[in-house]
Amino acid sequence: MQTSALPDIAHTATKPVHWLATAAAMAGVVALAGLLQPRTATATATAPEKRTTTPVAAPDPATVDFPLECGGAGTTVAKQAPGDLDGDGRPETVAVVHCDAGSGTPPSGIYVLTQRSGAAPRVVATLVDPADRKTVGEFAVREGRVSATLLGYSSLEVPRCCPDQEEQVSWRWKGNAFVRTSGDLARSV
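The structure assignment produced for this chain is given below.
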């Protein structure tokens, strides 16, 4: 074994007093860290961060004046369905409405309703105009799409009780308007 050419270093020979001094220094550091703790954190939401978990209700078609000319007979909301059609997070309501004729099969209109906070519901789009003389069979709103079966008549000789044409249609919001697509065009029933 070769001996070191360096002189003995004093701190390499530890004594109990060194251990005691190290322990006292560590205790002082821990105690000081305990006294210098940061203030207790508190979380408060500012106005932009507050979120409402209450779902927004879809517009109620019972409170809307529809653009139908019924000669004082009033209107009937035959079908309705809510859905977020434009992807803004607020539901719209799609309503199938016709004049309250009492008998027969009056033509229907399909209307899209929206409502801003605190405002009355209003019609923002007419998907089927009653002037087209169609009635609505099946009707649904799913995944941002409105779909319906439109029933119509091939001529004035066809009794108004018994439509002889059927068309499957759907609408989807694209850009700034509803775009209509058709399935079977004017198929006989």
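Interim note for the steering committee: The longest strand covers residues 165-174. The chain has one helix and nine strands.
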